[in-house]
TrEMBL record:
Residues 635-772 form the Baseplate structural protein Gp10 C-terminal domain. The lineage of its organism: Bacteria, Bacillati, Bacillota, Clostridia, Eubacteriales. This is Phage-related holin (Lysis protein). It comes from uncultured Anaerotruncus sp. InterPro entries: DUF859, Gp10_C.
Length: 773
C-alpha cells in the first residue's frame, strides 16, 4: 500500500486530497496485478456540501477512469470520493512501477476548489522463471533426476545441456519433477565434450514456459563424470602352461574392457571383454613365448592391464602385477642315460672289473654320450651335469659332444647324474654299481719296551684290524707287517724287517722280541730310538711310530748311593750332567776338619750359580784364570768410584742398592764437558748460563753510511761516528741529482725492548747423582 498526497486550491489548511493505492490481486501466469486506487477528501474544521455531483478522474498506468460524486463533509470528516481498479502488467522480471493521478473540480462556495494528486506506485514482484532444486551433477550414462520449483502450475519447462555457448542436448515437457534418461548417442556426445578427461563442467539451463510464452530461464553449473574404472579382483599369478582366469568388478553393465597380458615386458595377448570374467587359455605359441621370457629363472614378472570403456570413452586403467611360474616338473630337462666305470688302475687291477667300485679308493668316471645329452623343450639351456656318489659330488660342463667327469675315492654304489638347466631345474638318472666295502688296515696297539725297562732286549706288541675279503676270485686280501728304526739323535732309518704277525677273523697280532742296532740283543741301552711299524694289504697300508726310551734310568738307587741320569758308580751322589740351583742357595758341607776344597767357576764359562754362594771362613782363589775373587764393595769401587755420576729415569738414590754416599746434582741444568781453553768451562763442577736474555736499546747501535763514499751525500761520515746513541744536526750538502738544494737535519734513533727472550735448548729430564764417598 502507498499513499499519494495531493493538493487543493481553496482552504488548503482545512481540506486535504490524497490517493490510497494498493494491489488486491496478482495473476502470475499473465504477469499482472489488479491495482486499486481510493480517492480521499478530508476536512479539518470546515464543512461543505456540493448539493450536486462533481466530476473527477483517476488515471492508472495511462488508463483514465471518470467519476461523479455528490459530497457532504463535516468538520473533521473523511469521504471516499471514488474507488477504481485496474489490471496492470509487470515488467519481464515480474516487477516494475506505474504512474497514478487524479483530479476533482468542485466550483461551489466554501468548496476545496480544484483538487489533484499524482505519483508512482511500485508493483510487487511476481515470480517468473522456475528454480531447479536438485543437483546438476551426474555420471555419464546415469539418469538425471529433476526437481523443479515453479511459481505457477501452468508453467512447463524445457532442459538444455550447454557447453559454453554450444547447445548439446535439449529436452522439454517437465513440470515439477522428472528424470532425464540419456540415449547412447547422447552419452557419446557428452563424452565428445569430455575428451580424454574423466569429467567435464557444463551448464544446465532450466527454461520456464507458460503455454507458448517464455517466462524466463535459469542456468545451473554442473559436472559430468565418467564412471569409475573397473578393478581386477583376482591375482595375476599363474603357472606357465596352465590357464589364467581374471575376474573384474565394474560399476555398470555398460562398461566394457580391454585386457592386456604382458610377460617379461612383452605383450602376450590382448582381449576385448564385455563381461566381468575372462580366461586366458594359452596356445602352444603363447606358452613358448612365455617360456622364452624366463630362460634363466623359474619365475618372470607379469603385468595385467585392464582398460575400462563406456560408450567408447576410456574411463580409466588399472594394472595388477603378478608372477608367472615355471612348472619345474613339466619344464625340467629331458635326460635319461649315462655310463660309468672305475678308472683307478690300482683298484681295477684287483677287481678285474671297472663296474665294481672299491669303497674309498676307486675313481668313478661318469660319461654322457653325445646321443644321450640332455635337452630342453621350454626355452632353457642345459648348463651342466652334477654327479653324486657316496656323499661326494662333481660337476661336468654341458657340451654337445660327449662329456665326462670323475670323483675320487667314492664310498657308495648309488650313482646319480642330474642334468641342470639355466633355470636350475634338474632331471636325475640313478644307476647302481657293485661296491666293495673295503676298509684299510689299522694299527690299534703298538708298544715297545726294554726288558726290565733298562736292558737292551726289546719287546714289541702289535695289534690291529684288516679287511677280510676278496677283491676278485684271484685277489684274496691278506696283510703283512714290517718295522724300521733309527737312533733318535743320530737319525738314519734302518732297512725294513718283516714281522711274523698272526692273522685271524679280520685281526692281526704280534708279541715278540725284535732285533735292533745290537742285532738279536736289541738296542743300545744309553740311546733312545724311533720305531716305525707298517702293515700292508693288497691295496693300502697303515703305519704307527713309537719312541724306545734309553735304558739308563733317571734315578738309580743302590745300597752305596744314588745315581742321577746314570747308573750309580761312585760316591753317595753320582750325577751325570750339570747341577743348577734356581730357587734357593746351595749349602755344601765338606768332610775335612780345617779346610774345604771345591771348584767354582772353573774350566768352562757355563759353570755358574743362579743364587748367592755363602761361605763361612776364608775364600782363596785358585791358580787358574778364575783365581781372582771379587766382593760387593770392591765391585762398586771399580764401576762407580768416588766422583762418578749415575743417571736414571727413576728417582731412587743409588745408595739404596749400590751402597756408598751419593748427592743429587744439576737440578734444572745440563752437563757440559770441561774445556780448559774456555773460561766458562775450564774446570769441573762450574755452573753458569741463563734461561732468558733481554735486547734493550743500550745493547744496540745504528749505522747510516754515505752513498758511494761521498761525504756530501746523505749519511754519517766515518769521522763523525761515535759512542752517542743520538747525534743531531749533522748537515751535508745536497746532491743536486736527487735531493733539493737545501740543508738537512736528521738523526737515527735506536730502540730496544726490555722483554725477555728464551734461550732454552731442546731437553730431556732425568735424575742425576754424584758419588761423594
Amino acid at each position: 500500500m502507498a499513499i499519494i498526497n495531493g493538493s487543493v486550491t481553496n482552504y488548503a489548511g482545512n481540506f486535504a486530497y490524497f490517493l490510497d493505492v494498493y494491489e488486491i490481486q496478482t495473476n502470475v501466469a499473465n504477469n499482472q496485478s489488479l491495482v486499486r486506487v481510493d480517492v480521499w477528501l478530508t476536512s479539518n474544521t470546515r464543512s461543505w456540501e456540493s448539493l450536486s455531483g462533481v466530476d473527477g478522474t483517476v488515471t492508472i498506468s495511462g488508463v483514465q477512469h471518470g467519476f461523479d460524486k455528490i459530497v457532504s463533509i463535516g468538520a473533521g470528516g473523511r469521504v471516499v470520493l471514488t474507488t477504481c481498479d485496474q489490471w496492470v502488467t509487470h515488467d519481464a522480471a515480474g516487477a516494475g512501477s506505474i504512474s497514478i493521478s487524479s483530479t476533482f473540480n468542485p466550483t461551489s462556495s466554501y468548496s476545496p476548489g480544484r483538487c489533484s494528486a499524482s505519483g508512482s506506485f511500485a508493483l510487487s514482484t511476481i515470480p517468473r522463471a522456475s528454480s531447479l532444486t536438485s543437483s546438476a551433477n551426474f555420471v555419464a550414462g546415469d539418469n538425471l533426476p529433476l526437481s523443479i520449483s515453479r511459481a505457477s502450475s501452468s508453467f512447463t519447462h524445457n532442459i538444455e545441456v550447454r557447453f559454453g555457448s554450444t547447445l548439446a542436448i535439449s529436452r522439454g515437457g517437465y513440470t515439477t519433477s522428472g528424470t532425464i534418461t540419456w540415449t547412447v548417442a547422447e552419452t557419446k556426445a557428452l563424452y565428445g565434450h569430455m575428451g580424454t578427461a574423466q569429467s567435464v563442467n557444463y551448464t544446465l539451463r532450466l527454461i520456464t514456459m507458460s503455454g507458448g510464452t517464455l517466462i524466463g530461464y535459469k542456468d545451473y553449473a554442473g559436472t559430468i563424470t565418467a564412471p569409475a574404472h573397473s578393478t581386477i579382483t583376482t591375482a595375476a599369478n599363474f603357472t606357465i602352461g596352465q590357464a589364467l582366469t581374471v575376474n573384474l568388478s565394474r560399476s555398470r553393465a555398460a562398461v566394457t574392457h580391454k585386457l592386456t597380458l604382458a610377460v617379461g615386458g612383452t605383450n602376450i595377448r590382448q582381449a576385448d571383454v564385455s563381461g566381468t570374467a575372462y580366461t586366458f587359455q594359452f596356445t602352444a605359441a603363447e606358452t613358448a613365448a612365455i617360456y622364452a621370457k624366463t630362460p634363466n629363472s623359474n619365475t618372470v614378472a607379469v603385468k595385467l592391464t585392464c582398460q575400462s570403456y563406456h560408450c567408447d570413452h576410456l574411463c580409466g586403467t588399472v594394472v595388477k602385477d603378478g608372477t608367472a611360474t615355471v612348472n619345474s616338473t613339466a619344464a625340467r630337462p629331458i635326460f635319461g642315460n649315462f655310463t660309468f666305470g672305475d678308472i683307478n688302475s690300482a683298484t681295477t687291477a684287483l677287481t678285474l672289473d671297472s663296474q665294481r667300485l672299491v669303497s674309498g679308493f676307486s675313481t668313478l668316471q661318469v660319461t654322457v654320450p653325445a646321443a644321450d645329452r640332455a635337452t630342453s623343450t621350454t626355452g632353457a639351456t642345459i648348463k651342466k651335469y652334477i654327479v653324486s656318489c657316496g656323499g661326494k659330488t662333481a660337476e661336468i660342463p654341458y657340451g654337445a659332444s660327449e662329456v665326462a667327469g670323475s670323483i675320487r675315492a667314492v664310498t657308495g654304489g648309488s650313482i646319480q647324474v642330474a642334468a641342470v638347466d639355466s633355470r636350475g631345474n634338474q632331471t636325475s638318472v640313478t644307476k647302481l654299481a657293485d661296491i666293495i666295502d673295503y676298509t684299510p688296515p689299522k694299527i690299534t696297539t703298538m708298544t715297545v719296551r726294554r726288558q726290565n725297562n733298562v736292558d737292551t732286549r726289546t719287546r714289541l706288541v702289535l695289534e690291529g684290524t684288516y679287511w677280510q675279503g676278496n677283491f676278485s676270485a684271484e685277489k684274496v686280501n691278506r696283510p703283512t707287517a714290517a718295522y724300521t728304526y733309527q737312533a733318535s739323535e743320530a737319525g738314519g732309518w734302518s732297512s725294513e724287517t718283516a714281522l711274523p704277525i698272526t692273522i685271524a677273523g679280520g685281526k692281526f697280532t704280534l708279541t715278540a722280541f725284535i732285533d735292533g742296532d745290537l742285532g738279536a740283543n736289541g738296542f743300545t741301552a744309553d740311546a733312545s730310538f724311533d720305531l716305525l711299524c707298517k702293515v700292508n694289504d693288497l691295496l693300502s697300508s697303515a703305519q704307527l711310530s713309537r719312541v724306545l726310551d734309553r735304558g739308563i734310568p733317571t734315578m738309580h738307587m743302590t745300597k752305596d748311593g744314588i745315581g742321577v741320569m746314570k747308573l750309580h758308580e761312585q760316591g753317595s751322589l753320582d750325577v751325570a750332567g750339570q747341577i743348577a740351583v734356581t730357587d734357593s742357595g746351595l749349602t755344601t758341607t765338606m768332610g775335612c776338619r780345617n779346610a774345604s776344597h771345591m771348584h767354582y767357576f772353573t774350566d768352562a764359562p757355563n759353570h755358574w750359580f743362579n743364587k748367592p754362594v755363602y761361605v763361612q771362613g776364608d775364600v782363596y782363589g785358585g791358580n787358574n784364570y778364575n783365581r781372582r775373587l771379587l766382593y760387593a764393595d770392591e765391585l762398586l769401587n771399580k764401576i762407580y768410584p768416588v766422583g762418578a755420576v749415575y743417571i736414571s729415569m727413576v728417582n731412587t738414590s743409588p745408595a739404596s742398592f749400590l751402597g756408598g754416599t751419593w748427592s743429587a746434582i744439576a737440578a734444572g741444568r745440563v752437563l757440559v764437558g770441561v774445556d780448559t781453553s774456555q773460561a766458562e768451562f775450564n774446570a769441573v763442577n762450574k755452573s753458569g748460563g741463563a734461561k732468558t736474555h733481554a735486547h734493550e736499546s743500550g745493547t744496540l747501535r745504528a749505522q747510516i753510511g754515505a752513498y758511494d763514499g761521498n761525504s756530501a751525500s746523505l749519511g754519517y761520515t766515518a769521522s763523525e761516528k761515535g759512542p752517542d746513541i743520538f747525534h743531531y744536526a749533522f748537515t751535508h750538502s745536497a746532491n743536486s741529482l736527487n735531493i733539493a738544494n737545501s740543508r738537512i737535519n736528521h738523526a737515527t734513533k735506536v730502540a730496544g725492548t726490555s722483554a725477555a727472550a728464551t734461550n732454552l735448548q731442546p731437553y730431556l729430564t732425568c735424575y742425576m747423582w754424584r758419588r761423594t764417598a
